[in-house]
Design a protein that fits this description.
mainly beta
């Protein structure tokens, strides 16, 4: 799980498996 700014691009161009969005930030979940 990675905490990111809400409008930031995905890490290394990989789309997150799950995303939980808030007002100013979001949590991207990457399954290994």
């Amino acid at each position: 799980m990675v905490k990111r700014p809400r409008l930031a691009p995905a890490l290394r161009g990989r789309k997150a498996d799950f995303t939980i969005s808030g007002k100013n930030s979001r949590f991207d979940v990457y399954l290994i």
